[in-house]
Specification:
By secondary structure, the chain is α+β, with helices and mostly antiparallel strands. It is 53% helix and 10% strand. It is built from 9 helices and 5 strands, in the order E-E-H-E-H-E-H-E-H-H-H-H-H-H. Strands 1-2-5-3-4 form a 5-stranded mixed beta sheet. Helix 1 (19-27) packs parallel to helix 2 (44-55). The longest helix has 21 residues, at 170-190.
């Protein structure tokens, strides 16, 4: 069973409990950040789940029943709880906006889920706090991207053109050709012109929303 809550920015279910639900989540391709498994439990279903977790490079934590009970929202975890990606498609800036750029909310919903030691936790907290300060300084609190992200997209666009026209990378050229039809269709649906590069368009398509 899944628990958690949603927002308009696709705030996805945070916990998935029970053997069938967790196994199905892995096999359906849902992004799973961490897996908690009852220590010492090695029956068939659990082995299938941990095998899937390793395929997807998911962090596996073997814990006591008491720890699972603490994490469980349903109290029917059957010895296994998975934490899905809190924001399935959301970019970091929109995650922060969804939480009102409020460090108390960010601490609770993002930082605390790293389960890091105290020093690392402070570093993670400071990283998000600094990002919020940059967003405010660049006046992108409600929409848009910080300049550092724009610079990265520009660098990726330059690399795209190099590989396409100068690098003579045939494999890359083939992949671009295969994606061309989808990019044209997405550009039409998103209502954007050629001022938006194919790289930015592709990133927006992966993100799951049109450029605003």
């Amino acid at each position: 069973k899944m628990g958690g809550r949603r927002t308009d920015l696709r705030y996805e279910e945070l916990t998935i409990e029970g053997r069938n639900a967790v196994l199905e989540a892995f096999r359906s391709g849902k992004p799973i950040d961490k897996l908690f498994v009852l220590d010492g439990c090695q029956d068939g279903p659990i082995k299938s789940i941990t095998r899937e977790a390793r395929k997807h490079d998911t962090i596996i934590n073997y814990v006591t029943k008491e720890r699972l009970d603490q994490l469980s929202e349903t109290k029917k975890h059957q010895g296994v709880i998975a934490f899905a990606a809190a924001y399935e498609y959301a970019q970091v800036e929109d995650m922060l906006r969804a939480l009102g750029l409020d460090m108390k909310q960010i601490e609770r919903h993002i930082v605390a889920r790293f389960e890091a030691d105290e020093e690392t936790g402070r570093e993670i907290h400071d990283w998000y706090d600094n990002l919020i300060a940059i967003m405010k300084q660049e006046k992108v609190e409600t929409k848009g991207h910080i300049q550092a992200l724009k610079n990265t997209v520009n660098e990726l666009t330059e690399l795209h053109f190099f590989l396409l026209h100068q690098g003579h990378d045939r494999r890359y050229q083939q992949l671009v050709t295969l994606a061309a039809g989808n990019l044209v269709e997405f550009r039409r649906k998103a209502g954007v012109d050629d001022s938006v590069s194919d790289v930015e368009l592709a990133l927006n398509a992966l993100y799951g929303r049109k450029r605003k």
